[in-house]
Amino acid sequence: MAMTLWNFVEIVEEIENATIYIENYTNEENSDGKEIHRVEMNVEDTDTEIIMGSYILEAESKKALDQQVKFTLGGYFKKIDVVNKLY
Hints:
The chain is 29% helix and 43% strand. It has two helices and four strands.
């Protein structure tokens, strides 16, 4: 079962020194022939350097995915260090 955004937010909030990594962008076609753009948001406990959770965002275009990433980060993780490995 995939992690929900709410579970991911709870994990991030429990970590004292968290860093979120935006990484592992993929672009695939699904069985209907539509493009699916995906990216992982991984949270690391910087004290132990262990990845504590991963959340996957999906969209039908790269632009929509970029907007979704910005919205999610701005809405839930304003005070968390973010490393964007996509650009």
